[in-house]
Amino acid sequence: MVAEIGISTHASLSISQRQADSDERLIDLWVYRRSPHTQRAYRVDAQRFMEWAGKPLGGVTLASLLDFAKTLSTLVPASQLRILSSVKSLFAFGHRIGYLPYDVGRALRLPVVRDQLAQRILPEADVHRMLSLEENPRNRALLTLLYASGMRVRELCGLKWRDVSPAADGGQVTVLGKGSKTRSIRLPQSVWKHLSALRRGRDPNQRLAVH
Fold this sequence. Notes:
Number of helices: 10
Oligomer: single chain
Order of helices and strands: HHHHHHHHHEEEH
Largest sheet: 3 strands, antiparallel
Distance between the termini: 59 Å
Structural class: mainly alpha
Shape: elongated
Strand content: 5-15%
Number of strands: 3
Helix content: 40-55%
């Protein structure tokens, strides 16, 4: 049971020696340097749990977590998984930095969510049909970029014209992705043709997704 709960070797640390001195400060440290979207989601999940628990995180037990998990039964499995994963992450982080003496979330089993990725992927023929039916040049260029690059819609919304540049055999786009990680994606000539036509006369600091 000790191994499951995870008793911290930092349990005897005084408040002044810890990196957090309140639950609120712990959450600030927990979400630090994560993307704005992730920060919002984590804070919402943490607040939901803390309001339900009605006690400081140091007073939460595994039984409390199990009872909280039962209150999520009306949500779809994916939402249950997200919320419980956030709560587990918070307790693991608090234990790791010595703020919480126990990682009570370690023994909490997460719900199994069926992978439905295949059901969400459009057949290639449908994608090409959608692109061919789009009459607006801007919309067609952005849809083509999404399809060819595989980037997330949120990543596309954050792109500025300075993030795209020509390359020897087409173009290149620099994307700031999840976890503030930057990656470069090469674009074929057919995609770059649409983008370069849309790019003419644009301010380099203007977002691609803005009219």
